């Protein structure tokens, strides 16, 4: 009989082997909550379901944060391998991204339940999230350039994770700004545009390299199947951020020297958002074809499967925002189909995650030396 996850071979083994890629679970759960809440057509219990998913994500994020900080405090010998590993370090970007998605939920669900003081809390947490995002986007590439070992044939879209974090924070700024006073909203908008530009420019460069790698070396191993969806993330988040930041700018900068630029940003935001949505649509179809190919090879489950959820979810959110701004039924129908697909994928990945936890298969970090670190999949080994 498979052992339950509570029967670990050593005390606190699940803490020592806790990996930052668990935060991808909070990203997928949080974005599903936002998608459910913003569906073009309402259904009974919609907001209760969405809020329940968001609260589940908050609980997961709190638990994972506690486990991660405990690992750093009690097992300092694991910090250096984590930072220098060419795959595991990438998942550090999931920490601020998970927080950013939950902050959007705090703005959406928190104020109706607890009052307007929630906006002040979200405002402060957003600056903290932005700082974490920039830290991930700067630190991990620096380690890539100076300490880690990489090769083109080993390149996957997981490289996107740390540099996309500022872009996710920027899209959250677009959710927060309408609930702030103009004086507080302006710095958030300005920093949001800076974060958006910092992230998307680097993301396009990396997506170009990913396309080159795919053309020359073909698809990665089945352990990295979910990474084929990751390029959809920055394209969809870039679309969503441009739409929301551009929409918020005129009101925030009214009566200031930047009022004209803000009006221009609103129009350009819609045009640019449509262009990025088109690029995301190409990658969505391509990723689905890749996944069909991987399914024929019986791809094994690992925590990387949560990479199927967030890109799809944020693309659904961008589609909903385009529907709100254009009023076109096409985008409403597309958003509904994407939401149904996201729900099915989330349920599947959650079920496999719970089974993996019960069997004790997800609490191993093979890059950490020791008798209880059996060889696992490439992605799990990289996410120690």
UniProtKB/TrEMBL annotation:
* Cell compartments where the protein resides: Cell membrane
Q: One Gene Ontology cellular component annotation? A: plasma membrane
Mark the transmembrane ranges.
21-41, 53-75, 87-110, 125-145, 157-177, 189-212, 224-245, 265-291, 303-323, 329-349
Q: Topology with regard to the membrane?
A: Multi-pass membrane protein
Per its UniProt record, what Pfam families does this chain match?
Answer: SLAC1 (PF03595)
Molecular function (GO) terms for this protein are: sulfite transmembrane transporter activity
Chief location category: membrane
Q: Which UniProt keywords apply?
A: Cell membrane, Membrane, Transmembrane, Transmembrane helix, Transport
The UniProt family comment states: Belongs to the tellurite-resistance/dicarboxylate transporter (TDT) family.
In Swiss-Prot or TrEMBL terms, this protein is called C4-dicarboxylate transporter/malic acid transport protein
Q: Supply the source organism for this entry.
A: Geopseudomonas guangdongensis
């Amino acid at each position: 009989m498979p052992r339950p996850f509570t029967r670990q071979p050593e005390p606190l083994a699940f803490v020592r082997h806790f990996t930052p890629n668990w935060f991808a679970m909070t990203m997928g759960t949080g974005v599903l909550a936002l998608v459910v809440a913003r569906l073009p057509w309402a259904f009974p219990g919609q907001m209760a379901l969405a809020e329940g998913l968001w609260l589940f994500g908050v609980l997961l994020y709190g638990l994972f944060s506690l486990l991660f900080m405990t690992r750093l405090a009690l097992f300092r010998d694991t910090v250096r391998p984590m930072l220098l590993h060419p795959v595991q370090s990438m998942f550090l970007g999931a920490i601020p991204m998970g927080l950013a998605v939950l902050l959007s939920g705090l703005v959406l669900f928190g104020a109706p339940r607890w009052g307007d003081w929630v906006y002040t809390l979200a405002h402060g947490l957003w600056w903290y999230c932005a700082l974490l995002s920039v830290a991930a986007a700067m630190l991990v590439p620096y380690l890539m350039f100076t300490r880690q070992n990489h090769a083109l044939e080993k390149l996957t879209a997981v490289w996107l994770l740390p540099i996309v974090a500022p872009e996710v924070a920027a899209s959250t700024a677009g959710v927060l700004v309408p609930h702030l006073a103009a004086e507080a909203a302006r710095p958030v908008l300005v920093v949001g545009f800076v974060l958006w530009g910092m992230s998307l420019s680097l993301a396009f460069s990396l997506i170009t390299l990913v396309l080159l790698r795919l053309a020359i070396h073909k698809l990665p191993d089945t352990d990295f199947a979910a990474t084929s969806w990751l390029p959809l993330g920055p394209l969809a988040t870039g679309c969503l951020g441009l739409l929301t930041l551009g929409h918020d700018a005129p009101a925030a900068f009214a009566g200031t020297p930047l009022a004209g630029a803000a009006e221009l940003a609103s129009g350009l935001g819609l045009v640019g958002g449509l262009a990025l949505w088109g690029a995301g649509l190409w990658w969505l179809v391509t990723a689905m074809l890749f996944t069909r190919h991987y399914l024929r090879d019986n791809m094994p489950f690992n925590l990387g499967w949560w990479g199927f959820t967030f890109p799809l979810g944020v693309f659904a959110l961008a589609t909903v925002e385009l529907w709100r701004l254009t009023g076109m039924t096409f985008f409403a129908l597309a958003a509904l189909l994407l939401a149904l697909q996201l729900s099915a994928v989330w349920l599947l990945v959650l079920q496999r995650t719970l089974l993996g936890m019960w069997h004790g298969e997800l609490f191993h970090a093979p890059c950490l030396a020791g008798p209880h670190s059996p060889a696992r999949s490439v992605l799990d080994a990289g996410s120690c």
